[in-house]
Amino acid sequence: xxxxxxxxxxxxxxxxxxxxxxxxxxxxxxxxxxxxxxxxxxxxxxxxxxxxxxxxxxxxxxxxxxxxxxxxxxxxxxxxxxxxxxxxxxxxxxxxxxxxxxxxxxxxxxxxxxxxxxxxxxxxxxxxxxxxxxxxxxxxxxxxxxxxxxxxxxxxxxxxxxxxxxxxxxxxx
Length: 173
Description:
Elements: E1 25-39, E2 42-43, E3 47-48, E4 55-56, E5 64-68, E6 72-80, E7 86-94, H1 96-99, E8 106-114, E9 117-128, E10 133-140, E11 144-155, E12 158-172
Antiparallel strand pairs: 1-2, 1-3, 1-4, 1-12, 5-6, 6-7, 7-10, 8-9, 8-11, 11-12
């Protein structure tokens, strides 16, 4: 598990908040990744780091998140639409050292749950380069989400499995 790091920000309302309410979205993100290597049929230990519980607040003034793990780079963005319709766009790219281990195409799949239940979101690519920017988006509202991205590719004499989990909560402030 590699913990993504980032900065948190907060939005304050002024004294006129009752006349001009501030609308923003707070997203608490806890991420981790883990990697397992299988060489000559022997499974290695799962490499992981503890999740950090980093919080990030998205607002119209600060809609982006960027963070690095031991395996790659994550970006996330809440896009604002009319009313309560919002979407969460994300991208994950393995770092050069991790991608360089691949000796063939990578398969990738992503799923998400909302408040612990599947809501139908999934995405997958059967054969892309390990240096591919995996990306997608889905509609969000004020709920807790867990996005799980699984990447698998061949390496010399074996296989590499990387699972990255993004745990975030979207709330209106």
